[in-house]
Amino acid sequence: MTDKMIIQLFLDGDACPVKTEAYRVAERYHIKTFIVSNSFMKIPNEDFLEAVIVDQGLNKADDWIAEKANEASIVVTNDVPLADRVVKKGGVAISPSGRLFDAATIGAALATRNLFENLRESGVVTGGPRPFSGRDRSAFLGALDLAVQRKKRQGFEPDFSKNRL
What we know:
The protein is an alpha/beta fold. It has helices at about 20-30, 60-70, 80-90, 105-120, 135-155, and strands at about 10, 30-35, 50-55, 75, 90-95, 100. The protein is about 40% helix and about 15% strand.
């Protein structure tokens, strides 16, 4: 790497329950953060935060994130197919409950997702995920901090003043 790449944080914003926690970590590490959604979303007025509103439609926010993501990216999402797209570009994804999706874990995550989707479609599984908890929030904070530390060890810079899309 001749020019150091800058760590970027992308939040799949429409249904992200850990925005506030992600903002705190981003501020601590000086990471430019993009909150991507299909509609207006009020966010704090901070230099390191940027709201991105994409067109209405299935997967428009996911497509925007996947297009912008690179090996310095960290993406917060519950969407396993989006996580797969990010991982294929060298980035990492983290679920709001703290589950890390990287090259070592994404294959199993996709297989599990596909299995449960098939079971739901056939009527075998009718329940959804368990309720989001404080333990999930804590696990997310730990996973996000770990992801930032790993990106820094890989040589990426956490400096939002240099991070413009």
